[in-house]
Structure formats: structure tokens, C-alpha cells
Here is the input.
Amino acid sequence: MNSVSIIGNLTRDVEMKSLPNGSTMFKGGLAESEKYKNKAGEVVENTNFFDFIMWGEHWSGVAQYMPKGQKIAITGSLKQERWETPEGDKRSKISIVVSKIDLLSTKEQ
Here is the structure.
């Protein structure tokens, strides 16, 4: 099973790209933080950053309400991208392919 759900804040405005094959892709970034107390009793915050992709023109109605700072909940699947740099180094990253999104609130609210 390949499924993930995350609540966090957008790290940048969602960007739309029209691809040569006619499809539409929306890209964004999400930050999620957890706070806990360490053994010394100090509050520690750990932040994780995720890239996500939304495929299809039907996301355009939602994407316009997704500025940087917007709190959202996304559900989707993980996809690993692999490529090689011009220098021959192998790279990879994991992104979330969104199937469901809920707009929650902005930092100002």
C-alpha cells in the first residue's frame, strides 16, 4: 500500500506548469513540524519538508487558494523520481502525488 496523509503549511505559492503533451501540473512544497521535550526538558521542534504534485487542470480551482503559509491537509501516494546530473551523479527525491486536499487556515487566521 502506498498512501500518505500530511497536515502542514505551504512553503511557497503553488506553481502551475503546462506541459508540451497538453497536461497540467501543479507543484508545491509543504512543511510539517513536531514539537517534543528532550531528556533535559527543553522543547525541541523538528520540521520536515515535502514536495507535492497535483496532476490535471481540475486542480486549478483549488490551487488559486493556496498561497505560501496556507495550512492544508493532503492525501496521496509517494513517487520517487530518479535522474543523473551532467557530471554523472545519481540523484533521487520523493514527492507526494496528491489525490485529495483540504484547505484548513492561513497563519493570519
